[in-house]
Each structure stands twice: as C-alpha cells, then as structure tokens.
C-alpha cells in the first residue's frame, strides 16, 4: 500500500514517535511524505520515505495529485487544529480529495494508531481489491 505521512510542526514529535513505534509495520509499505515530516521520519527510523515538497510549498497538493491519480491508499496527517497554517487551502483540498476518492484519512494520533494496527490485521485489503478491479476494468 502507498501511505502518506504528514504532520504540522507541533505534531512532528508525535509522527516521529509513531513512526518509531510502528516501523515494523510501516516498512512493509511504500511511504510518502511532505518534505520536513519525511526527512525527520527517515532520519529517526531509517525508513525509506519518498519526499515531496514541504507542505507550505506544495507538498499537500502533490500528495493530493497522487490521490487523484489513484496512487495513494492511506493518509496519516497529524494536523495542528490550534495553529493557523499559511497553506490552509491546500490542507482543506487534500482532505477533500480523501473524501472524493474514499481514501482512509487519520488526522490525529488516536486514529493513526487504529489505522496502523488495521494494516497488520488486513483491514485495508479492500483497497487492493478495488484497485485490482479498476485495473481489470481499464484493460477491457
Ligand atoms: O505543512 C504540512 C502539511 O500541511 C507539513 O509539511 P512539512 O512536512 O514540510 O512540514
């Protein structure tokens, strides 16, 4: 599965601790991240993370483009709900696309923990089934 990790500045510590705690699960997947988050996660864990631009410089939009291209299966986005972000429209657009395309989106650490455990339990296998069906339909 293709998974995006994103965290606003006040949640960076949380995403790092989360990535360390669940690296055994995360390493089985293709990881993507906005620039600063991804760099910090990669440094802390040694995980291979595909880096996009930093969020305020377009990283959220790049991840949104992956969703629109059917290339993203899950987003873990630890948002800071108490600090205004200069790129708030990009943040909203990314979350909107998750709803448009039925992409599981965890916006806080409590939901992120449930998601990552769900990965181990196979709770997200429906994503693979949907993707395979779409690919088959496209070949027809
Ligand atoms: O701002 C962000 C998401 O909206 C995160 O970007 P960085 O990971 O580059 O800090």
TrEMBL record:
Every MGS-like domain range: 1-140
SMART domains with a match to the protein in the record: MGS (SM00851)
Binding positions (substrate): 8, 12, 34-37, 54-55, 87
Keyword Acyltransferase: no
GO (cellular component) term, any one: cytosol
Uppermost EC category: lyase
UniProt-listed Enzyme Commission number(s): 4.2.3.3
Keywords: Lyase
Gene Ontology BP term (one): methylglyoxal biosynthetic process
InterPro entries in the record: Methylgl_synth, Methylglyoxal_synth_AS, MGS-like_dom, MGS-like_dom_sf
SUPFAM superfamilies referenced in this protein's UniProt entry, alphabetically: Methylglyoxal synthase-like
Record carries keyword Lyase: yes
Active site location: 60
GO terms assigned for molecular function: methylglyoxal synthase activity
Known catalytic reactions: dihydroxyacetone phosphate = methylglyoxal + phosphate
Family: Belongs to the methylglyoxal synthase family.
Its job: Catalyzes the formation of methylglyoxal from dihydroxyacetone phosphate.
Record-given protein name: Methylglyoxal synthase
Native organism: Virgibacillus salarius
């Amino acid at each position: 599965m293709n998974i995006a990790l994103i965290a606003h500045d006040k949640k960076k510590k949380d995403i790092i601790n989360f990535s360390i705690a669940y690296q055994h699960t995360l390493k089985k997947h293709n990881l993507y991240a906005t620039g600063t988050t991804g760099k910090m996660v990669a440094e802390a864990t040694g995980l291979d993370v595909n880096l996009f631009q930093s969020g305020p410089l377009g990283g959220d939009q790049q991840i949104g483009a992956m969703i629109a291209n059917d290339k993203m299966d899950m987003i873990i986005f630890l948002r800071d709900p108490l600090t205004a972000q200069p790129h708030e429209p990009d943040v909203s657009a990314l979350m909107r696309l998750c709803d448009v395309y039925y992409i599981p989106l965890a916006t806080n650490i409590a939901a992120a923990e449930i998601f990552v455990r769900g990965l181990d339990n196979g709770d997200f296998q429906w994503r693979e089934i949907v993707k395979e069906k779409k690919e088959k339909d496209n070949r027809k």
